[in-house]
Amino acid sequence: MSKGYALRGLTLIETLTCIAIIGITMTMAVPALTRFNERIRISRESAELHQAISLARSLAITQRSRITLCPLSTRYECTRDWNQQLTAFNDSNSNRRVDAGETIYSSVSGISHSGALRHFNSSVISFDERGFAGFHTGSLSLCHSNQGGNFSGSVFIISRNGRIRPGTDRNGDGLPETPNGKNIPCPST
């Protein structure tokens, strides 16, 4: 005689209970995952900015030449739209444009989403052969607005001697301040 095996499935009540548990879990997990992804994206974009500024300064010292970091127009001239792709290049004649014989070293992608804003108070960040920024100082900031309408961001402060330091949130409102104590500029809602 062969032994018979009884097949057992889930009852309708058990199936509905499992679906309800999965639904509740997803309802809680999706917003948390979205916030986590936003934080990762903001951290990555901030790290890219810091790396681009640091690389421009290092190249200026190692290449013994003026290196400029800026958003370029289609005519390879520096503009003030810091949300565009940023490019570091050898600017040996300090004319804020890529001329024949000047090397493009690196670039940082532009911002592709409307909830973010990069800001700098000038059209270029430029370092001389000693790594000094001279009069090309300021604060390069990045601000993001999330789905809840809250803002977060980072700022990198460039001193005359070329030092790059991150800004801090001294007033505890979630946004870092520039050296003059003002919050970084953020996208309008």
Q: Strand order across the biggest sheet?
A: 3-2-1-5
Strand content: 15-25%
> Percentage of helical residues?
25-40%
H-E order: HEEEEEEEE
Low-confidence stretches: none
Report the structural category: alpha+beta
Overall geometry comes to elongated
Mean pLDDT reading: 88
Number of strands: 8
What's the number of helices? 1
Protein described:
The longest helix is centred in the N-terminal third of the chain and has 52 residues, at 12-63. The model has no long low-confidence stretch (mean pLDDT 88). The strands form 2 sheets. A 4-stranded antiparallel sheet has the order 3-2-1-5, covered by helices on one side. Strands 4-6-7-8 form a 4-stranded antiparallel sheet, covered by helices on one side. The chain is built from 1 helix and 8 strands. It is elongated. By secondary structure, it is of the alpha+beta class. It has one helix spanning 12-63; strands spanning 67-71, 86-90, 104-108, 116-119, 125-127, 138-145, 151-158, 164-166.
List keywords for this structure.
4-stranded antiparallel β-sheet; 28% helix; 189 residues; alpha+beta
Spell out the blueprint of helices and strands.
Elements: H1 12-63, E1 67-71, E2 86-90, E3 104-108, E4 116-119, E5 125-127, E6 138-145, E7 151-158, E8 164-166
Antiparallel strand pairs: 1-2, 1-5, 2-3, 4-6, 6-7, 7-8
Tell me briefly what this model is:
The protein is α+β, with helices and mostly antiparallel strands and 189 residues long.
